[in-house]
Amino acid sequence: MPTVSMTVNGKSVSGDVSANTLLVDFLRETLGMTGTHVGCDTSQCGACVVHVEGKAAKSCTRLAVQCEGAAVTTIEGLASGGDLHPMQEAFRDNHGLQCGFCTPGMIMAGVDLANRRGNKLDEDTIRNELDGNICRCTGYHNIVKAIAAGAAAMDK
Amino acid sequence: MYEFDYHRASSVADAAGALGKADDGSLIAGGQTLLPTMKMRLASPSDLVDIGFLEELKGISVEGGGVKIGAATTHAEVAGSSDVASNIPALAALAGGIGDPHVRHMGTIGGSVANNDPAADYPAACLALGATINTDKRSIAADDFFTGLFETALQEGEIITSVTFPGADKAAYMKFANPASRYAMVGVFVAQTGDGVRVAVTGAGEDGVFRVADMESALGGDFSSGAISGVSVSSDGLASDIHAGSEYRAHLIGVMARRAVDAANG
Question: Which domains does chain B have, with CATH numbers?
Answer without folding.
Answer: 5-50 (3.30.43.10), 55-165 (3.30.465.10), 170-265 (3.30.390.50)
